[in-house]
Design goal:
Layout (H helix, E strand, L loop, with lengths): L14 H14 L4 H19 L3 E11 L5 H11 L4 E8 L4 E11 H12 L4 E9 L11
Antiparallel strand pairs: 1-3, 1-4, 2-3
Keywords: DNA-binding, Metal-binding, Nickel, Transcription, Transcription regulation
GO molecular function: DNA binding; DNA-binding transcription factor activity; nickel cation binding
InterPro entries: Acetolactate_synth/TF_NikR_C, ACT-like_dom_sf, Arc_rbn_hlx_hlx, CopG, CopG/NikR_regulator, Ni_resp_reg_NikR, Ribbon_hlx_hlx, TF_NikR_Ni-bd_C
Length: 144
């Protein structure tokens, strides 16, 4: 892959903002201010793509309690309902009661947000988070 061309820019920020940025760089392990700023800019660009209803890939991470009646069946049924958007999933039993499930999704961003909310709203889901990416997976081969 060819190396991307880089362009230098200059910005002016308040001193306390720069101090907070430098602290964040240390805490999050960025190599430089440039790397941290590019990461923040890319996050905002992805947010903008989500607003414009672009087709995007993403992950939905769920943490749920296996003791809730039929929760695994409810998750599986919802995945089946959205078979075109839910590309793959990984389920891990974390302890006696907690299950972590990560789903790979692709589709129009507003659809993915709506679908994710349905998963997160299932009774017994402790936490859920959708992370959208500015990329699209190549088409999957379909059996003819």
């Amino acid at each position: 892959m060819a190396k991307q061309k880089l362009t230098r820019i200059s910005i002016t920020v308040p001193e306390d903002t720069l101090e907070a940025l430098d602290q964040m760089i240390i805490q999050q392990g960025f190599d430089s201010r440039s790397q941290a700023l590019v990461d923040m800019i890319n996050h905002r660009l992805v947010e903008q793509q989500a607003v414009t209803n672009a087709v995007m890939a993403g992950t939905l991470t769920l943490l749920y309690d296996r003791n809730f009646t039929n929760i695994r069946l409810q998750v599986a049924d919802l995945q089946h309902e959205y078979l075109e958007q839910v590309i793959s999933s990984l389920t891990v039993q974390l302890d006696q009661n907690k299950i972590l499930e990560v789903m790979l999704l692709q589709g129009v961003s507003s659809d993915l947000q709506q679908i994710s909310q349905q998963f997160i709203a299932i009774k017994g889901v402790v936490k859920g988070h959708l992370e959208l990416m500015e990329a699209v997976m190549p088409p999957l081969q379909q059996n003819q």
